[in-house]
Automatic annotation (TrEMBL):
It comes from the Bacteria. Residues 1-27 form the signal peptide. GO terms for cellular component: extracellular region. This is Polyhydroxybutyrate depolymerase. It comes from Actinophytocola oryzae. SMART domains: RICIN. Pfam families: Ricin_B_lectin. GO terms for molecular function: feruloyl esterase activity. Residues 31-156 form the Ricin B lectin domain.
Length: 444
């Protein structure tokens, strides 16, 4: 695809480095037990206070060894010391212990109230009861987050969240597998204490901050009070990056797992930006739209709705017949509401199908597949929105809506930003306005 580049990548990275911040959500300190498997408590072994004392699972007994304070600086403390990943070692099975608080990353924890996980961002791993055992004295460790019950914890109740990231555009670190990635975020002055979060994924050859600019999403965020996160793919492509979309394309061995990365983006930012994990939405342009679609297939529990622009997919093309989606490659466990936008004159991701090997089937075929996934029955309704725009909608508990722009190119409807070589950009509708209206109807 052709790319909109309003600044050089090197200049952008320089700005990000100069303005990047380590964002930490602040909440009123809360003290009490942390409970996990079988309702048992996180416990300091033998009530000892020496550095290196193991932390374990134990029957709740109300002693000081089970009184943990969740502090505004993202530490978790007992006896005035911190819950610590031994040596900051980034490996499954690393011991969790008590240690003097020292400000090191191995003592930072982010809680995901939707998944009930307590994540150490420095390692990208979850607090875990070893061997999924609920026996007394089961050691606690860090382990790759996997959604199992031995990684689910209930924390003492605090008094709300105070966002440490100031209003405006910033670079916030997200750690996956020990590697730090700076994610462009935008916090509007209108954001409430706990705010919805919209992921905005760039197209192939672009990057996060450029996508935030091109989509002009700050205007909608200011008007509606939602947070925006614009991460970047990790694979170099032209002047920017590409997403590792599952099931399509050929990427070098060891390429970043971008489903896992977006998991970590959501977990980190719903914590550090005081985002509402039940109101996380995703949109994306072109390759970012394909990644948005793939993420919804793989992680339907993490997003309340999606809005691909010039990139709606419903799994990879079927190897036996590329004119239709491969149903086996997209089988989400729950419905995902979808609103999509596409130009009929799109030469990069053709509306009627064809194009590159990662595209092939038509946009209406993708819409029909999502309608089937969501259990929508009956024929869609078609509405004339404006001179060149129609909407086609499958109505059910999780609607699937497609806005078709008859004279539109490979562009973002309503943006004032130019996109040379990509065809016409309609101003008859505004994708940001319409997708936000759609998003507000759904929570997870």
């Amino acid at each position: 695809m052709r790319r909109l580049l309003h600044t050089t990548l090197s200049a952008l990275l320089a700005v990000a480095a100069a303005t990047g911040i380590a964002a930490t959500a602040r909440a009123a300190d809360a003290t009490g037990p942390i409970t996990g498997l079988a309702g048992k408590c996180v416990d300091v072994a033998a009530s000892a206070t020496a550095n290196g004392t193991p932390v374990q699972l134990y029957t709740c007994n109300g002693t000081a060894a089970q009184q943990w304070t969740v502090v505004a600086d993202r530490t978790v403390r007992a006896f005035g010391k911190c819950l610590d990943v031994q040596g900051g070692i980034n490996a499954d099975g690393t011991k969790v212990q008590l240690w003097d608080c020292n400000g090191n990353p191995q003592q930072q924890w982010t809680y995901d109230p939707a998944r009930l996980t307590l994540v150490n961002p420095a390692t990208g791993r979850c607090l875990d009861a070893r061997g999924q055992s609920d026996a007394d004295r089961t050691p606690l460790q860090v382990w790759t987050c996997n959604g199992q019950t031995n990684q689910r914890w209930t924390l003492p109740t605090g008094q709300g969240c105070q966002r440490a990231v100031p209003v405006g555009e910033h670079a916030v670190p997200v750690v996956l597998g020990g590697t730090r990635y700076d994610v462009t975020v935008y916090v509007p002055a209108s954001a409430p204490a706990t705010a919805p979060l919209v992921l905005n994924l760039h197209g192939t050859g672009s990057w996060g901050a450029n996508q935030l600019y091109y989509s002009d999403m700050k205007v909608a965020a200011d008007a509606n009070g939602f947070l925006v996160a614009a991460p970047s793919g990790a694979m170099p492509n032209g002047d920017g990056y590409a997403w590792n979309v599952p099931g399509v394309g050929s990427y070098p061995p060891g390429s970043r797992d971008d489903v896992a990365f977006l998991d970590q983006v959501i977990t980190t930012l719903t914590g550090s930006l005081c985002g509402d994990p039940k109101r996380v939405y995703a949109t994306g342009y072109s390759g970012g739209g394909r990644m948005t679609s793939a993420y919804a297939c793989a992680r339907p529990d993490r997003v309340a709705a999606i809005a691909p622009v010039a990139g709606l997919r419903a799994g990879r093309p079927d190897p036996a017949d590329a004119s239709r989606p491969d149903t086996a490659s997209c089988r989400p466990s729950v419905s995902v509401p979808v609103v999509a936008f596409h130009g009929r004159q799109d030469a990069t991701n053709p509306y009627d199908g064809g194009g590159s090997d990662v595209w092939r089937y038509s946009v209406p075929a993708a819409q029909q597949r999502w309608a089937a996934i969501n259990g929508c029955t009956g024929s869609p309704t078609s509405t004339t929105v404006s001179t060149h725009v129609t909407s086609t909608a499958y109505r059910c508990g999780a609607d699937v809506v497609l806005y078709t722009v008859s004279d539109g190119g490979h562009t973002w409807p309503g943006t004032p930003r130019p996109s040379p070589g990509n065809g016409s950009t309609t101003q008859e509708i505004n994708a940001n306005t319409l997708m936000w209206q759609f998003f507000t109807r759904y929570t997870r």
